[in-house]
Amino acid sequence: MATQFDADVIVIGSGALGNNAAFELAQQGKSVIILEAGEHVPRWKIVENFRTSSRKGNFNDPYPNAPWAPTSYQENYIENTGDFDLFPGMLKLVGGTTWHWAAATWRYIPSDMKLKTLYGVGRDWPIEYDELEPYYVRAEKALGVSGSDTDDQSGQGGDAWPPRSEPYPVSPEADTYYFQRIRDRISAEGYHFIHEPNARTHKPWDGRPACSGNNNCMPVCPIGAMYSGDVHARHAENAGAKLITDATAYHLEKGDNGKIAAVHYRSSNGDDTRLSAQYFIVAAHGLETPKLLLLSDVANSSDQVGRNLMDHTGMGLQFLADEPVWPGRGPVQQGGIFNWRDGDFRREHSAIKHALTNMVPNTAVTQRLLDNLIVGPELDDRIRHDAARWVDISTVFEMLPHAHNTVRPSTRYKDALGIPMLTVNYSVDNYVKAAADVAKRDYANFVRLMNGQVIEDDTGWQNRDHLMGSVIMGDKAEDSVVNGECRTWDHDNLFLATTGVIPASGVINPTLAGVALSIRIADIIAKEI
Amino acid sequence: MKNNAVKTPCLSRRELLGGMAAVSAAAFFPWATRTWADSPDATSEQAIQDFLMLSERLTGREALDARIAGRVWQALLDSDERFADHQRLLVQAMDDANLTDMRSFKAFAATQPEALTQAAIAIISAWYLGFTGSVEGHSATDNTRFITYTGALMFEPTIDATVIPTYSRGHSDYWVDPPASIATD
Known about the structure:
The complex is a heterodimer of chains A (529) and B (185). In chain A, 25% of the residues lie in helices and 17% in strands. Chain A has 11 helices and 16 strands. Chain A has helices spanning 16-27, 43-51, 115-119, 129-143, 177-186, 230-238, 285-296, 362-371, 376-389, 430-449, 511-528; strands spanning 7-12, 32-35, 78-80, 193-195, 242-244, 248-254, 260-266, 272-282, 314-320, 333-337, 352-357, 390-397, 406-414, 420-425, 453-456, 494-496. In chain A, the strands form 3 sheets. In chain A, strands 1, 2, 5, 6, 7, 8 and 16 form a 7-stranded mixed sheet that branches. Helices cover 41% and strands 2% of the residues of chain B. Chain B has a two-stranded antiparallel ribbon. Chain B is globular, with a radius of gyration of 21 Å. Classes of the chains: A alpha/beta (529), B mainly alpha (185). At the A-B interface, helix 2, strand 3, helix 8 and helix 9 of A face helix 1, helix 6, helix 7, strand 1 and strand 2 of B.
């Protein structure tokens, strides 16, 4: 008698990656269940939460923070034990953390994926750029990416790179005046400014309106011009997938022949449910995915689950330029300086990306003036003067995977469902510290070229919320969790759709690569069912 | 962890099943707690009027919104039990120093106790930033209280050039040009 399953495929997590895999599978006629710990929340409620919040700089604040589905900023959700407090802003609701991500959708370049071979550090990806390229094309169409087909995104001032088999779905939006002025003055000394490809287009796409410069990509785009994972929750449901909310997966049950037989989830009223499937995709981001595997004692014959954790740990520069450049008009970011994206220096120190932040700066400007007791008419004058000249540069560094940078289920704290929270041990190595000195030299040049007045040029290490490495991909079962297909070495029906598989971080936001890998997972599974 | 957030309740399964009904709506829906209902109800019109006048002196503005004044005043009273005393002493000190032009505030502050300067800045800050208290990093909770968003005075000096975030200037790619005022900015 044939075995009966609750679904062909169960996807755990309804973020951009899980939902894109679910949509592709449902569209190919497979029965799909998506489990989401949080709830569906309409955009207008999140926008109203933001507008009525006193913590507008806290990008998790407008989102649901339930005792059974907390955001990552809830106390004790993450207990840090290392040198650096890793606090990525992660959400639990339908659509996941791409509700607040600013939608940068870079591709990795081929050399990013061969770091060990080319530069002798870190690890290589087990797949090459050419294998991923067709899936990048599909991911860019799924998300509606606008970008430049002519930039050398390696930052070396050469021809268009990396190779593309199709142009970007949408042309690049206009450069902001702010970007133009800073580029015109700083590029004079050989700094290459690159337009940022972005899933937030200036033309309507897939039912989303064109961006009209509401300047609030983080923490919520009020009009849904920016892509967020709820788009493909809707598409997956329309294609026939069943989305179950208030369903926190806490156990993967092992079956015969090394397969995963079922997932167990718990709802906020304490009910437990067991669901079986032929295939399972865990898409619960770079911290919750390894936690679920460790709690379930699966996929960890290599002892690499929850190790090699990487963020693009960063730093920042803020200064006042000598002319009005007017940040705050248009989207919150558009690109940056990529000279240190690739080169032989990567043997010695990490790659570096400097990005221009284009957020309306009035809160920071005003706070600083009040701290200096500037009030009355002078306060109004200075707000306008300083807001017009405020330049904010956000820098990220390439990280290397280290076994001692870990995420584990907490042994001290549990959520309201009785499920362990997280313990993170994270430190920044000398490969990154050496690059920080290079970045600071750049900072001095930027300030000199803009004849600027420094506000802050040594912020210390900052979170960038790009989780990678924690369920690392490799070409050997002995030292990695998944193979180049994102299939776990230990269970051939268990795939991981998370940027946590990424073994070499580069400096670019990893979500597009994660979506491309997720679509590829769907294709692989669809062929096997 | 470095923030001051309230502890997450760690309930057992039995407690969870029995206690769910007792969890307030605010835990499910943070927006449920942030309404205009925070406005003062048991305070006198005169007290709010006094606070409004002090606010207008401190900000150098002539026609601040009385409804927002009530919210600022209540938030400051609720977050600092000494605030009413500091307000009274601040008015007295400003009268004694004949402080009418806020361009002299720094010199005035240099002669006053730190607490009075901070009380003055707390009032001005609430009007300009639209909240009271201090944001504690990424903490899920802190001592801040929301006052107003679009009414925050910090947006007025730039309103012709940039948006109040989440609102729009109308159409894609307008940002390719600088504000019309660029020559004189």
